[in-house]
Amino acid sequence: MKIKFLFYMFLFGIISVSAYSQNVKLININQLNERIKNGKDSTYVVNFWATWCAPCIKELPHFEKLAADHKTEKLAVLLVSLDFKSKLESNVVPFVKRKHLKNEVFLLNESSPQEFIDRIDPSWSGSIPATLFIKNDKRKFVESEFTYEQLLTEYKKL
Q: Which residues form the Thioredoxin domain (predicted)?
């Protein structure tokens, strides 16, 4: 009986970990645009970040707080990692787990940085952190780090 219990606990642990690792999905620009276009939310805050970017890591809790504070609104916060695809399992998934990120997390699966940068916003130099705000047909792109107050202000302007 004890062995059966330990087996089930082990199995539950594996399922939990594998289900959690599913929270970080590979996505390309077309899929990201489709997610936004066909999503049920009216406002999207899309943050581009990386596990190696100190300002990105510093501001991630602000995006978590924004989503939590406005959970009754039709807001989707999408966190798009620009880490290399090869770092998904070794860096990004453990980082997301360690930071307890609740928002949707993606890893951008594109081979040509300049091509996807231009498709996000032609004015983007490629530096991160960067955030795209979308509400209906209105888009605003900001290429800088946010405090929570600045993020909230930009969100409320939409």
A: 15-158
Neighbours of 88 (CB within 10 A): 17
pTM of the model: 0.84
Give me 5's structure tokens.
């219990």
pLDDT on residue 33: 94
Which of 16, 148, 31 is CA-nearest to residue 78?
31
* pLDDT single digits (tens) 1-56: 544 443 344 444 444 444 444 489 999 999 999 999 988 888 999 999 999 999 99
